[in-house]
Design a protein that fits this description.
It contains 12 helices and 12 strands. By secondary structure, it is α/β, with parallel strands linked by helices. The protein is globular and about 90 Å long. The N and C termini lie far apart (about 75 Å).
């Protein structure tokens, strides 16, 4: 046998081995996905077979302990129906994006779904990623593709983030302007509050507007809203005017801001409402000196840290903040069957912090029990009778509970989960003000039903 023949045999064997390895890992994803989604979640099975198949995924072989998903299904559209002739799913006229933008977003959605399934169900996934990242550190491979908007990038100070592409904000602006007009016509104050993204307009000049467009998207949206006389409160301006270190306001391994930053934001929001609308909210109750901080050292590996694993980063400290004065609250989350009375501590899901589980738990979900369609607060000791409606993303989870300490009633809607009519809800509850609180990653051009976070019907 010639050397050339031997070489060809080696090449074929290597190709066959590579295909076999690929098929093995692909098969594990399929089998484990079906086991989890059908046997465990749908049929409620938990036996020796499911334990073997999901042997290294203990958090997937039980109920959704840490996802923040609803525990009971509520037909929100029946409770808060849309006006006759209006659908719960927006038609093509709701948005103004072109075919190319929609096609791109669909591709990104498919990519995210694939990444989710691979991350959750690929056998030994975390170990494989950790080994790969250790190898990259050994060879000092520190390259990050600026064109990859689903990737994780490490900033010079060690903070992890993802870059956001430039987005068409026109449909988002149109929908919000219409919604603000609706509120005005019904005698309700409307405020759009812009939360910050992890990239700073000032401190990240080599990144902002170059490879990341989170701030530029927010600026474009705000410019349109201001032209229509929509009330804007931009927390990025407050951060810059106070000279705060932008990155230090965020978790190092997660895209969310710190609970301490959430408290800071809540105080500024109440101050703004008092100054602009002469409300009598108790913003002084939100001074940091009036809170006790319970620290959980090295307790939290954020969503971005989970992706790159502990081979690349180290866990964040995590904290829960408790007012030192007397509180008495009513707190409810209908789709989680939570209906509680007590002091402020009832707004925390302590299961999220009862033990360290870097890859299986999300301590940030302790705030407001994570993401739900509707969360309601009543402050029994409030000196005013204000009712606020917050429409928010997950950045609001560590803001809204603190705001509830300064007003009587708060309803909080997350449009990623709430499928009823926002306007019907407003008509039934009669808020004094409607506040939309979004960070720039929530500014998108299209979406399905209320998963499009600018569908305010």
């Amino acid at each position: 046998m010639t050397n050339e023949n031997k070489h060809n045999i080696y090449v074929r064997c290597a190709c066959i081995a590579a295909v076999a390895i690929f098929m093995f890992f692909f098969a594990t994803i399929i089998v484990r996905t079906l086991t989890r989604q059908i046997l465990v979640k749908k049929l409620g099975m938990e036996n020796s077979f499911t334990n073997i198949v999901l042997f290294d995924l203990k958090n997937l072989n039980n109920t959704d302990e840490d996802t923040g998903n609803a525990t009971v299904k509520i037909d929100w559209q029946s409770l808060y129906p849309f006006e006759t002739g209006k659908q719960s799913v927006p038609d093509k006229a709701v948005t103004t994006t072109g075919f190319a933008d929609k096609y791109k977003e669909r591709i990104l959605l498919v990519e995210e779904k694939i990444e989710t399934y691979v991350t959750d169900y690929l056998i030994w996934y975390k170990k494989i990623v950790e080994l790969a990242n250790k190898y990259k550190s050994i060879i000092q491979w520190d390259y990050a593709s600026y064109a990859e908007y689903n990737g994780i990038v490490k900033l010079p100070d060690g903070h992890l983030t993802s870059y956001i592409e430039q987005r068409d904000t026109n449909s988002a602006a149109d929908n919000m302007i219409s919604f603000a007009d609706y509120c005005k016509q019904n005698g309700i104050n409307f405020i759009y509050i812009q939360a910050p993204y992890k990239i700073s307009r000032i401190q990240d000049k080599g990144v902002s507007g170059v490879v990341d467009f989170s701030n530029q998207n927010a600026d474009a949206l705000i410019q349109r809203l201001k032209q229509a006389n929509v009330d804007i409160y931009d927390l990025r301006d407050e951060i810059e005017s106070e000279g705060l270190n932008h990155h230090s306001l965020f978790f190092r391994t997660d895209h969310h801001w710190l609970p301490e930053t959430g408290l800071w934001a809540s105080r500024h929001i109440l101050d703004y409402l008092n100054q602009k609308y002469k409300y009598n909210t108790d913003s002084g109750a939100l001074n940091e000196s009036q809170f006790k901080i319970v620290l959980y050292p090295k307790w939290f590996l954020g969503s971005q840290g989970k992706k790159v694993t502990l081979a690349v980063t180290t866990p964040d400290d995590f904290s829960l903040l408790y007012p030192t004065y007397k509180t008495q609250m009513h707190f409810s989350i209908p789709d989680a069957e939570i209906d509680l009375d007590g002091d402020f501590s009832i707004v925390y899901d302590m299961k999220k912090v009862e033990k360290i589980d870097y890859y299986g738990r999300n301590p940030y979900g302790a705030y407001m029990y994570s993401d739900h369609a509707l969360t309601r607060f009543e402050n029994h000791l409030s000196k005013n009778n204000m009712r606020l409606l917050f429409i928010h993303d997950s950045f609001g989870n560590c803001v809204i509970p603190f705001v509830s300490l300064g007003v009587k009633h708060i309803d909080a809607i997350d449009l990623r989960h709430f499928t009823g009519s926002v306007q019907t809800f407003i008509e039934e509850t009669g808020p004094d003000a409607v506040i939309v609180l979004y960070n720039p990653s929530s500014i998108k051009s299209d979406g399905d039903a209320h998963k499009y976070t600018f569908d305010f019907r």
